[in-house]
Design brief:
It contains six helices and no strands. By secondary structure, the protein is mostly helical. The protein has a domain of 55 residues.
């Protein structure tokens, strides 16, 4: 089958008066078009997969990895990143922990310090 197609291409090129250099250039141009179309398709599919992955919660991402690869098997760097995100979301931010621990906001603390400085100066 391939040989028959190859012979047809050779005959078509002979009758069209193309030189070997022109034939090679045409092949390169056609392959570039095919490659760029395939590349665009791969990029589109990759973007869809990435968008789906990002919509999952970190816990769901770990579950998907476990289903696909086995519990705690493979994708160790990805798992570390996901665990870091989970740990970060569980711990309160610094301003929240200050306000919770001392019962005042950062601005209230500064006001009290300013008042105490004034009292010491008088």
């Amino acid at each position: 089958m391939k040989e028959r197609t190859h012979k047809k291409n050779i005959e078509a090129n002979r009758t069209s008066g193309s030189t070997a250099t022109q034939i090679r250039q045409n092949k390169c141009e056609r392959s570039k078009l095919r490659n760029s179309a395939a590349k665009a398709e791969r990029q589109e599919k990759n973007n869809e997969r990435l968008q789906y992955w990002r919509q999952l919660s970190p816990q769901e991402q770990l579950t998907k990895l476990d289903e696909r690869l086995g519990v705690n098997q493979g994708a160790s760097k990805q798992r570390k990143k996901i665990h870091a995100v989970i740990a970060e979301s569980k711990k309160p931010s610094k301003s929240q922990s200050d306000a919770q621990g001392k019962g005042i906001s950062g601005n209230g603390k500064r006001r009290r310090q300013a008042k105490s400085m004034e009292a010491q100066g008088k």
